[in-house]
Amino acid sequence: MKLKFISKLSVITAILAVLTFAFIYIAQPAEQWWYWGALIFYFAVGSIIGLRTQRAVLSESNSQFFTGVMGAIGIRMLLCIIFLAIYLMVSELKQKEFIVFYLFLYLFYTIFEISQLVSKLRPEKSSSLDNTTS
User: What secondary structure, in 3-state letters, does 87-124 show?
Assistant: First the structure.
């Protein structure tokens, strides 16, 4: 199951890499390495956070599930803000195109993670007891 998540994440990242290459080829932005760095960053964070939430889904405790999923979302947001802050401090150009690209990646990877989480919740969290904390 972990391998399945990583393989889907790798395919999504490969598709985004092709789209990023096409964007860079057409738009010719300066400091192109930030685009590739952001894509690698999101793949790394997505795999680590995704595996953490997958483990939280498998837990029997509802409070551990809630803490794991919400903690992962919070950690992802914090790490993404730190990356963007580093870009704004280090980069001399501060391109709006990169910031839009970066926020698109954030949205895309978050939607992917949530869709994977929802697909895992259906078969693995079904029980006769509803999902309230006990």
Answer: HHHHCCCCCHHHHHHHHHHHHHHHHHHHHHHHHHHHHH
HSE-CB for 69 with a 13 A CA cutoff: 19
CB 93 within 8 A of CB 4: no
In this structure, the chain runs to a length of: 134
The alpha carbon dihedral of 51, 48, 41, 99 has a sign of positive
Residue 127 pLDDT:
53
Pair 95, 28: CB distance under 8 Å: no
pLDDT digits (tens, 9 = 90+) for 40-89: 999 999 999 988 888 888 888 888 888 888 899 899 999 999 999 999 99
What pLDDT is recorded for position 111? 92
User: Is the CB of residue 72 less than 8 Å from the CB of residue 57?
Assistant: no
Asked if 116 and 110 count as a contact pair (C-beta separation under 8 A), the reply is: no
Neighbouring CB atoms inside 10 A of 65's CB total 20
Distance separating alpha carbons of residues 36 and 6, to the nearest angstrom: 19
Reply yes or no on whether the pLDDT at 1 is more than 60.
no
